[in-house]
Amino acid sequence: MSENDKFYVERCLDGHPDDYRYLVRRYQGVLLANLAGKLGSRDRAEEAAQEALVRAYFNIGKLKKPDSFFSWLLGIADNVAKEHQRKDQLQRQREIVRSFTEESSGTELSQDYALESAIAELPEAYRKVILLRYYGGHNCNQIAEQLDMPLGTVTKTLSRAYAMLRESLQQQKQAEVYEV
Amino acid sequence: MNCEESKELLVAYFEGLLEDSEQQAVEEHLKDCSSCQAELKELTALHDRLVTNGKALAQSNLEKDVMNQLIREQNVRLKAAARATDALKIRRTIMKSPITRIAAVAAVIIVAALGINYIMAPSVTWAQVIQPILNAKTVVFDLILGTDDSGMVQHEIVVGSRMRRTMSNMPNMTMIIDTDNAKLLALDTEAKTAVYADITGDLGDRHRSYIKFVRQIIGQLQGGQVEQLGEQVIDGQKAVLFVGKGQNEEVRIWADPETAHPIRIEAKIGQEFSFAMKNFEFDAAVDESLMSMDVPAGYTLQKTNIDLGNTTEEDFVKSLRIWAEIIGDGTFPESIGTQSAMAQMPVLIQKVTAMQVSEDKGTEIGMSFAKGMLFHQTLENQGAWNYAGAGVKLGDAGKAIFWYQPQGSQTWRVISGDLSVKDVAAENLPK
Lengths: 180, 431
Hints:
The complex is a heterodimer of chains A (about 180) and B (about 425). By secondary structure, chain A is mainly alpha-helical. Chain A has one domain: Rna Polymerase Sigma Factor, Chain: A. Chain A is built from eight helices and no strands. Chain B is of the alpha+beta class and about 425 residues long. The chains are: A mainly alpha (about 180), B alpha+beta (about 425).
């Protein structure tokens, strides 16, 4: 956490594209976590994260407030995820037709897909806090600064997010039990 | 502390954010409360699971992949841009943006107002330099391109290497130029658009502010070339007139007979280019924010690059095409050159905007126009050129519109109405 987002965004705008790598480094984990849950596999998440980061770079001039880079990037990633989901859906429909006789090869799920999909289902405010805390290397104070909220609100939001995650993980488990 | 209070504080507790007294209270409560212990255990398990997952996701090649893709795409985009510049064809595309306007203007104004493409041979310093003109840290003045009644007035504030400039024929445009760092900030106060430009090319010796230019003329005129022409009345004031003549330039300075404060300065270079400066204020206090290169809040920002590198005949020909095709609706103008170009800027902007070209295209048109102007300024320095294009239709191959003698060349270059260029011996030039 050397310089803030604004600093690097402005460096990029001032013609130092190489400095974009610091923003990539800072948010790659966040994006992967956000996307893995939505797209179901590590590979797909990486592909979408790359696309989102590249798209963000070439549109960085449109970012109105350089210090809101994170929220903006997350919005782009969500859009990319939606586009990919749509594409996946079409492909899956085709595959279903084909797969009556053979097992679909499928892609390898993420290590902890249950957790990632639970995160993906969180409402945005809660999702942001969890992503920054565990995938963006932020501590609570840094989250407070990044999202411009009091520290107490951060811990309360985290607390509520944990409760939602637990509930969601619990439901997934039960669903598996019933399936078996 | 009861369970409810404790549970509320658990997250802050394991994040280590509690004050000592609160921390102790939570710990005390945890000792005896199995329900809260279980809650903490669950939370810790989830926390650990998140940490593990976070670490797993942090290991990826994403940084390398993204940076490689950026470089690839950037190159593709640059090549596409270069291809677009190769042929200057003005096409109508479906895109409208106030930025087009401002970027095009910025390109021209940077050349017109900053650059006088003119190098004088060094000579002995003029003994009677007028102190404030040469030494003032800040200079505020009005600059008139052309004549007092018909020319445009440019209000200019110069502080060190920064200049702020507003123009009477484009009231919503403001330019701030940093000559040391070769940066330009152009603001359209009406459209709330800003263009921040890097100026590349030779800014060193050739392009400077008008005040620096005047300083250089004064500094390099020899004492013997300066004449005092006695008292006159100028701009309603009694003044002493000094006239200095160089090889190709002439400067007239009217000064207050009692205080020596300059009232008006006129400079003429070559056969056509002249400007006047008046309403001087030296070392006036200037609000720093006026000279700031920061983009004001609420403005849309566009970055661009203004290349003032070597200008060629080709640039000049492109600018002639713009004169005829865009400004003159198919006909070449009465006159060309910096003064005329500046006077026609609002027309060019209006037409470019109406053409609804893309931002890049608009900038490109502005740049071509500016570079052509710069090329013409070099000719002013070298003397030998002639324009005869007034009223000639674009495409008329039978009429010569412009001819000039390149430095060191025996023959002349003649440009015709169809914008073809030929080498012609001096005796065969049009009459």
